[in-house]
Every structure is written in structure tokens, then in C-alpha cells.
Amino acid sequence: MGKETRADVETLRAADADRQKVADQLKAALDEGRLSLHEYDDRVRDAYGAKTYQELLVLVSDLPRPGLSATDVAARRQAEERRRARRLPVALLVLWTIWAAVTVVNLVVFGLVVASVDGSIYPWPVWLLVPGAALGAVTVGVQAIRNQKH
After folding, report:
1. pLDDT digits 0-9 by tens, 49-94
2. 83-140: per-residue pLDDT in tens?
3. Are 109 and 135 in contact (CB under 8 A)?
4. CA distances from 37 to 32, 124, 135, 138 (A)
5. φ, ψ for residue 69 (rounded to 5)?
6. Cα(first)–Cα(last) distance of the chain, in Å?
7. Which residues lie below 8 Å from residue 48, measured CB to CB, with a gap of 6+?
8. The pLDDT value given to residue 68
9. What is the pTM of this model?
10. CB distance 103 to 128 below 8 Å
């Protein structure tokens, strides 16, 4: 399945084992009260008559995985929303990456200078804390503003 797209896979012919797997998932949905008996009968009939994966996928596309309760689905949705809210905007990620790269280069150069020169050397990399602190403050502010909107 390396280079095949999902559309290519969906047009492939389904096997009896695939039809049985979908029928089992439909039975689990019936047992959990997600499908009425009439819906279950219609979908199982369609599952056993399906020729392609696409026809099978349509039958279970509106169902959560078996064993998930409505509470589990809601909890996962809330967790995803919290993760999305914590995610930094791309501009801040770029700025943090640039700051980190400049800091690493300065520390390496400082380390080389200290190792190769006798006597005391002014610790110039300490000045990189200033833009780092400013960037940290901006990040905290942006996240606070984003969290107020939610």
C-alpha cells in the first residue's frame, strides 16, 4: 500500500473477511444502542452485498470504534480541542527555532573561544537571555489571548 492513495484502496474489491469485520462492527453498534434494529438489518444486508472497500466504509463512517461510549468520544474531542488550543502559532514556532539556533551557535563559539584563549572571556551569550525572555513573554501573552477566546 506504499504509493497507493486512499481512493485507490477504496476501489479495491472487499473480501469475505472484510465484510464479516464490518458486520461485527455493526453488531457492536447495535448492542451499544447506536443503531436501531431496522438500521442494523439494512446495513448488514448492504455489508454482505458490498463489492468494494468504499461500499463497506460508508456503512460504518458515522459510527465510533466499538466499545467507545458517548462519554469516551466527548472526552477525546475535548482533549483534542485542548491540544489544539495549546499548540503554538507557526510564527512563534519559527521565532523559537531561530532563537534556539542562534543560541546554540553562540554557545558553541563561546565554548571554543574559552577553550582556546587563556584568561577570562566576557560571557556574551548571557545577552541571548534578553530576546529569549521577550519571546517567552510574547508566547505567554499569545496563549492567554487564545485561551480567552475559547
Report:
1. 989 888 888 888 888 766 666 677 778 888 888 787 778 888 999 9
2. 877 788 889 999 999 999 999 999 999 999 999 999 899 999 999 999 999 999 999 9
3. no
4. 12, 74, 58, 56
5. -90, 170
6. 40
7. 19, 23
8. 63
9. 0.47
10. yes
C-alpha grid cell for residue 70?
A: 458517548
Is residue 141's pLDDT more than 80?
yes
Q: How many CB atoms lie within 10 A of CB 110?
A: 16
H/E element, 84: helix 70-86
For residue 116, the one-letter residue type is S
Nearest-angstrom CA–CA distance, 112 and 115: 5
**β-bridge partners, 52:** 13
Dihedral, CA of residue 35, residue 37, residue 39 and residue 41, to nearest 10: 130
Cell 543560541 belongs to which residue? 103
Separation CA 139–CA 145 (nearest Å): 10
